[in-house]
Q: What sequence folds into this?
């Protein structure tokens, strides 16, 4: 009870000192406020960017592998000369994988024809992307429909002229009217609409189904050369959830080497790309941004800490005779120490809370003024409060210690 009472008295002394010197208190808070605001704002921005990018990566699927000619490269020297003579993934490769793979939920062969014009009567939409794929496309990609359905097995096998439209294309052609059953024209061919994707909006990586069209690969064979490199052929493999991605990748690599008849010890003539490559690159990038945030905010906090320490030395000087009176009446050294330590901690916590309030205000401005969601996680709030607490303890200790060691007689005389 004595300790609790002493702590309460120390807080009251600190609160009185802060109230009596409002202008000095506010000025001394600026450094801590700016520092906490900078660090937490950077971390909140990084978390927001990471979440948005991760959502884009998650669309590709954590268990998804892409068999392509070119491996994904992320900056630095890219040895393109090693890959330029590789063959493109072919329909024969797809058939070979279908026969050999066991750890998969689906395998699809896909080609893409970009910048196509879609017409319906007098309406048209330009810049659409036409994708032709084998029946398992809905197993290797996550598809959400707002209208209609996916292709039937018979439509895929027989190459029926049917199409699934992105929401933006459907809206541009039909102006909100039902799309199912209507006939559109693409690349000189008429196709019947059987489905419309749910509207997604473009994510931070530019991926969206809104301007995509999907047709059966067997129908596309009669329209263009589906194995031409101009159409970017690729094989997409989605592994079973119960099987580790490394095992699926190992099986896929072995199956591809078998299909291509690659001899032992010879380098692969294909690339296996996966989303973890993007995730690892994002982690590296965000670590650098976090370090930059610590450096920028750290200087502000350092300056703020020196400011708090300087103010505390001034406060000790002003109240030297009061300290002498307290000690002459029996106040212990630790009581004087706690009194000034709590004052410094209270100053820093107040500055930290002001900084966090500014960050929260920034999230509201982003949400209501720019329609952008900026996340402020509890971990960042806790970190801001923790940093303020530590800075308060460090910057207040020496002034508090020097106050606690004053001689009561000399202090009263001052």
A:
């Amino acid at each position: 009870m004595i300790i609790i009472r002493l702590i309460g008295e120390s807080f009251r002394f600190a609160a009185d000192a802060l109230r009596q010197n409002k202008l000095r208190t506010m000025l001394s808070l600026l450094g801590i406020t700016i520092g906490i605001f900078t660090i937490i704002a950077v971390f909140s921005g990084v978390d927001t960017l990471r979440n948005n990018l991760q959502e884009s990566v998650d669309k590709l699927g954590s268990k998804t592998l892409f068999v392509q000619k070119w491996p994904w490269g992320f900056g630095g020297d890219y040895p393109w000369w090693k890959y330029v003579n590789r063959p493109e993934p072919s329909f024969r490769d797809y058939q070979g994988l279908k026969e050999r793979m066991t750890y998969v939920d689906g395998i699809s062969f896909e080609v893409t024809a970009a910048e196509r014009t879609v017409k319906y009567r007098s309406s048209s939409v330009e810049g659409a992307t036409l994708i032709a794929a084998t029946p398992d496309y809905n197993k290797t990609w996550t598809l959400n429909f707002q209208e209609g359905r996916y292709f039937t097995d018979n439509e895929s096998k027989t190459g029926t002229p049917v199409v699934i439209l992105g929401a933006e294309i459907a809206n541009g052609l039909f102006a909100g009217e039902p799309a199912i059953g209507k006939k559109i024209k693409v690349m000189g061919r008429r196709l019947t609409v059987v489905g419309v994707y749910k509207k997604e909006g473009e994510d931070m990586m530019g991926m969206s189904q809104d301007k995509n069209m999907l047709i059966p690969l067997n129908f596309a064979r009669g329209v263009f050369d589906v194995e031409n490199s101009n159409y970017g052929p690729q094989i997409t493999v989605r592994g079973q959830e119960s099987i580790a991605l490394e095992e699926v990748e190992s099986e896929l690599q072995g199956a591809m080497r078998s299909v291509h008849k690659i001899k032992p010890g010879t380098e692969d003539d294909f690339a296996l790309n996966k989303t973890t490559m993007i995730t690892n690159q994002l982690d590296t990038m965000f670590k650098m941004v976090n370090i930059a945030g610590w450096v920028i905010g750290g200087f502000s906090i350092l300056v703020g800490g020196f400011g708090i320490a300087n103010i505390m030395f001034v406060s000790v000087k002003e109240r030297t005779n009061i300290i002498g009176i307290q000690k002459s009446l029996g106040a212990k050294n630790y009581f004087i120490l706690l009194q000034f330590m709590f004052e410094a901690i209270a100053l820093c916590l107040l500055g930290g809370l002001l900084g966090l309030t500014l960050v929260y205000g920034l999230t509201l401005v982003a949400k209501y003024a720019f329609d952008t969601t900026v996340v402020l996680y509890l971990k960042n709030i806790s970190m801001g409060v923790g940093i303020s607490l530590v800075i308060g303890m460090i910057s207040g200790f020496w002034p508090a210690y020097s106050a606690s060691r004053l001689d009561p007689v000399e202090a009263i005389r001052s």
